[in-house]
Amino acid sequence: MPIDPELAIGADLGEQTFAWTSSDVLLYHLALGAGANPTDPAELRYAYERDLRVLPTFATVAQNLHTVDAPSVKMPGIDIDLAQVVHGTQAISVHRPIPVEGKAVARTRIVDVQDKGKAAVILNETTVRDADGSPLWTAQSSIFARGEGGFGGGRGSSDKVELPDREPDVTIDTPTLPQQALLYRLCGDRNPLHADPEFARAAGFDVPILHGLCTYGIVAKAVTDALLDGDVTRVKAFSARFAGVVLPGETLRTQVWRDGARLLIRTSSVERGAPALSDAVLTPA
């Protein structure tokens, strides 16, 4: 079915009520690699309930943590083959620290559908409020659908982040596990692209790849630990573009530049020298 931008843009995808517990938060953190040093007090703030803090990127999984079915890309005016889809961008902005457990209501709408010629980009925005109606976080995301362009829509604008013309202030190397994608899929993203070798080959990849949102969370944690003293409450917002795939077991090299109050970030695979995240900005509270 071709994309119908008139039907899609502005479409309200409805409300979803969901809840999470400390066990969900612990699982998410462990799926990002937290607790690699299990006696480090800083790591135990992510991996032990006694003094548990919630990394703000938990917002990207909280709504679908208990989903066990593979996702579909069917919305008003949009019906796309899952094998043609990759995550394009992700941004979260937290309005206050995320509690260790809670209940919330999410409402999502389609913000835009962009025609890139050979591909389509679909942008969604989700606002989340707690049970009392107070705002918790806002998330924006886009998906890149190969072969779905040419429907006559606008191309959209570029949000490229210019990095300073100097060496980074900090460089962080973070190893990933060979089984990282198998762990992370337990946080609600059962796309077989991250587990099934045959599906991955059909989608054009040699092996299953790591979830973009797993890379996103790993980098947020690494930067928070290295530059914000591991204080997750100091993270106000984090946005990034998924610039390339990461293979489970690779090491992520994250370069950070201080730019006023912002932290500008670029992440790549050490082994392949290939980009992973670009145009990334972490804004401290």
UniProtKB/TrEMBL annotation:
The protein's matches in InterPro entries, at most eight in alphabetical order, are given as:
HotDog_dom_sf, MaoC-like_dom, MFE-2_N
Signal sequence bounds: none
Q: Where is this region: Disordered?
A: 152-171
One GO term in the molecular function aspect is: 17-beta-hydroxysteroid dehydrogenase (NAD+) activity
Protein name per UniProt: 3-alpha,7-alpha, 12-alpha-trihydroxy-5-beta-cholest-24-enoyl-CoA hydratase
Which residue numbers delimit the MaoC-like domain?
163-274
Q: Where is composition skewed (Basic and acidic residues) in this entry? A: 157-169
Q: Which intervals hold domain Peroxisomal multifunctional enzyme type 2-like N-terminal?
A: 18-147
Q: Name one GO biological process term.
A: fatty acid beta-oxidation
From what superkingdom does this record's organism come? Bacteria
Organism this protein belongs to: Amycolatopsis acidiphila
Q: What family does the Swiss-Prot or TrEMBL record give for this protein?
A: Belongs to the enoyl-CoA hydratase/isomerase family.
Q: Which PANTHER family match?
A: ENOYL-COA HYDRATASE CHSH3, PEROXISOMAL MULTIFUNCTIONAL ENZYME TYPE 2-RELATED
Q: What's a Pfam family in this record?
A: MFE-2_hydrat-2_N
